[in-house]
Amino acid sequence: MLWLCLFMTVSTHAKDHDVALDRVFNYKKSIQSDVNGVTMNVYLRYHFRTDKKNKLLLTVPSMYVLARKNDNEFVGESYSKVTFSEIQKYESTLQVAVGTVPRYKNVMPTMIPLMTPKLYDVTIVGDHLLSPFHPQNEPIYRYGVSSLTDNRVEIVFRPKKYNTQLVSGRAVADATTGRIMHVEFSGEYDMIRFRANVDMGEEGVLSLLPKSSNMEGTFKYLGNKIRGDYQIEYNQENCLPDSIVNSHDRALMDSLRPFPLPSSLAALYHQSDSIDSLRNLSAKKIRKKNVAKTILWDAVGDNLVNRIKGHFGSNDQGYFRISPILNPLYMGYSERKGIYYKMKLNLSYDFTPNRLIQTTTRFGYLFKYHQFYFNIPVRYTYDSEKNGYVELQVGNGNRITSSSVRKQLKDYNVNIPDDEKNNNDKLDYFYDTYVKFRANHNISRRWSVATGFTYHRRSAIYKDFFKSIDMPLVYTSMAPMFLTQVMPWEERGPVFTLCYEQGIKGLANSGMEYGRMEYDASWMRRLYRMRTISMRLGTGFYLLKGDKTFFLDYENFKDDNIPGGWNDDWTGDFQLLSRDDYNTSRYYVRANVTYESPLMLMSRLPVAGKIIEMERIYVSGLLGENTHPYTEVGYGFTNRLFSIAAFVATKNLKYDGFGIKIGLELFGDW
């Protein structure tokens, strides 16, 4: 009888446990509207302390001002008007900003999204940190539910396996509705160990947003240690006129502050004011020296090692963002390409909500080949609803050769060694510069059509040699193109692309005639719990070959030295394939598959799970004239400091090489 009573008690507790969690899991569905259009005034206070620092802190975006200043503590406040479209997607107008950070710079901005957590979504912030309050993530967390007074329950949660994508903590929820009233959670995000305390809104759509948040974070990096704490208050009653923007009036902030400033932080303001007063009393010569130092080090130096971004235009309709110019963290390494450096410029200007002009300019340099790469696309969108745009793209491709040129050189008894694999100093190589124009329009949500042209100018690297044997130094081609994309399941399924390019001899002084057809299908399928499988299948071939020299140069099968577009730079491409194999085959059939997950192999181990954020498995295959087949298999992972992957290749069923790739691009949200 005692055993039966104990069993019934345990079963009842388990049932209550499940009911409480189910109500939390389903709470967001019970809200009839979303946060789109919600506008509120937001007060933010922050405080930083540098416990340890060295010169390597200069390489961290947003940390330059802390690295340069001798002060160890900084304080700041801001008051903004925020309009939400999603929980972590909003337009913010900074109305008042005060503080001791030089030029009111935003330090450690990666902490801000954590203060507006997406508690009921799969991830808490962006595509990171799996939320314990979403049903998909229930299998990877342990829960403890206990009843409190006033119809409340406490939910304690912790990961079953330690991983940087998981959090631990406790929450207080309404036992009847499942609304989270208060939550405390800790974890690691983008190199910051944090602890957050969040009070949620009380009713309706505001219950999906915080009412107030407090967060402490510690950033450790190569001997540097920075501690920061944020206090943020949402939905403040004080409304400022829209004419007040980016004010630095300390008295105005005193009137807006929702609670008194702690004495320790007020002392930092007083100390900063005293130093400023002493500087104002300094000699004119010293002041000039300080001004020069500020301009050269704080302004110029900041822009060299950190991202440069901002808005322009009368209504801030223009936006620009430039990668750091001298930051070594934008470098990478691969066995085949050696050390490389890349940077990117984003620029856009909105004429109307439906019309804009934009560019994503990319640059790169391969030190091994002494090659500079660039790609400059300028797109004018005249109808964003129909994806109607015209685009002009200028850039340079890989140095390229032609079988016809090789044949002619052999006729001149010129010996071209075959053992110089991947060597761009061969006599038969050419520089390649291209201009591409495309006009696109969507016929429907599932079908788009584009037309345009592609122009190539290929010039000999060794001009004097070609002159000596009386061969052309430059070969040009002009080719109208047609491209169509079909998405049968819209964004939920794969994208099918067909591209046809017809080189016409004599058009724009073109000396080449060819026809090229390419088919491509790609699909990035997002699975549960941040897992993704990326697939790409394609084929291409030449239909027509003219009598004159032509170059095998595919659009969807090439060695991309300025990568981007997938979840990581290495997905959807070959990493060990010889450069010559891209443009010596009249046809190709390729397939690439990448599977990634935060909890796969190494991350389940006790030690490795503390540093690995995402793991990936790569499988690629190729069929061509000289490859029957070529295969690559790789494994890689991303941690706080770098991404690394190892690949093994086979060619014609024989071992063809091993290589390692390392990417050092850090601080994506900084």
Could you characterize what this model shows?
The strands form three sheets. A 16-stranded antiparallel beta barrel has the order 15-16-17-18-19-20-21-22-23-24-25-26-27-28-29-30. A ten-stranded antiparallel β-sheet has the order 3-2-1-12-11-10-9-8-7-6. It has a two-stranded antiparallel ribbon with strand order 4-5. With 670 residues, the chain is mostly beta strands. It has helices spanning 2-25, 27-30, 64-68, 250-256, 263-280, 284-305, 403-411, 463-468, and strands at residues 39-52, 73-86, 89-99, 123-125, 128-130, 141-147, 152-159, 168-174, 180-189, 192-200, 210-221, 224-236, 308-312, 318-322, 331-334, 338-352, 355-366, 371-383, 388-396, 430-444, 447-460, 474-486, 495-503, 514-526, 532-545, 587-597, 612-624, 630-639, 643-651, 654-663. Helix content is 14%, strand content 46%.
Topology:
Blueprint: H1 2-25, H2 27-30, E1 39-52, H3 64-68, E2 73-86, E3 89-99, E4 123-125, E5 128-130, E6 141-147, E7 152-159, E8 168-174, E9 180-189, E10 192-200, E11 210-221, E12 224-236, H4 250-256, H5 263-280, H6 284-305, E13 308-312, E14 318-322, E15 331-334, E16 338-352, E17 355-366, E18 371-383, E19 388-396, H7 403-411, E20 430-444, E21 447-460, H8 463-468, E22 474-486, E23 495-503, E24 514-526, E25 532-545, E26 587-597, E27 612-624, E28 630-639, E29 643-651, E30 654-663
Antiparallel strand pairs: 1-2, 1-12, 2-3, 4-5, 6-7, 7-8, 8-9, 9-10, 10-11, 11-12, 13-14, 14-16, 15-16, 15-30, 16-17, 17-18, 18-19, 19-20, 20-21, 21-22, 22-23, 23-24, 24-25, 25-26, 26-27, 27-28, 28-29, 29-30
